Amino acid sequence: MVDALGVAVIGFGWMGRVHTRAYARLPHHYPDLPLRPRLVTVAEEVPGRAEEAAERFGFVSATRDWREVAADPRVQAVSVTAPNFLHREIGVTLAGAGKHLWIEKPVGLTAADARAVADAVARAGVQGTVGFNYRNAPAVEAARELIASGGIGTVAHVRVRLFSDYAADPDTALTWRYERRRGGSGVLGDLASHGVDLARFLCGEIASLAADTAVFVPERSRPGGATAGHALAPGGEPGPVENEDYVGCLLRFTSGARGVLEACRVSVGEQNAYGFEVHGSRGAVFWDFRRMNELGVCRGTGYRDQPVATVHVGPGAGEFAAFQPGAANAMGYDDLKVIEACRFVRSVAEGTPYGTTLADAVHSARALDAMERSARTGGWVSP
After folding, report:
1. What are 353-357's contacts with CB under 8 Å, separation 24+?
2. Same domain, 35 and 86
């Protein structure tokens, strides 16, 4: 009989729902997991939202106070999908209470926050998984294998882009995401954190960087009540946007490779335009999240005028076989979080980290802090 793992979810916006669905789907995609999640409790401070979540998704109980989760003996593992400013306090408290953590990026407001949670997890001897989901795409894992095996030669340069229009409408509500105190950085923590993780995953450590940031929508309207996602608040009281809409960053890797990372949350005409291009001495590999199951691959000995082939990844790539039987059967965003949930639960069951960890969050956060320093000083800095 499969043992149960009591889980809780703290914060029940969109990402809380994604985590909850991922737990529920694990038995379907990974029937051999030694632990099966049991939805014990959900914590959400917005009145009525936790109770609604419990009724809809099957949690045993609901609360508005996340501290009750730390004291709940029924809970062994917790998803932390609350706003950024709560990550440090929640993460450190839960780890100290012996709870395993699946926590969303960027893990706090600064590298110091991420490091505090990482240290707490290490002291407690619990597992800590971080929500860098894009590296879980089978095509991305196939690209990494291709690069690591020398399939495109020595990496020369990489470009990582993350463009979105979720904040392009000037009537988008002035939520915590746009405030320094609660959101920390803007597009840095939201999108560039993923870009740093992808760059490291594919090309190794970043030695130094130079960044520029900008705010293109300086004021937004304060919402009149609780919000979810990227709600609009036309006609509300205006308030200042305190963090960046855009970042452009040059990268130098310890390998000698060069890179460009660019992210923007107000890019009209772009919807989740995330991806990368990695160029090597004998080829290149390309990936676009919107065509998540495809890779563009260029290999050969001609150097000039070499064609790029479209490769549809299949059961031999990453975790593809757990979802689809053959190449070109599409996977989607939520599937990446199921993979993440599987690796989290496996880490708990076996006591060995699988997938992204708090160490990855610290590396990403250090790079984000360095981007902010560079944008202020106008020079190259080391993470």
Report:
1. 353/127, 353/128, 353/129, 354/129, 355/129, 355/136, 356/129, 356/130, 356/131, 356/132, 356/135, 356/197, 357/128, 357/129, 357/130
2. yes
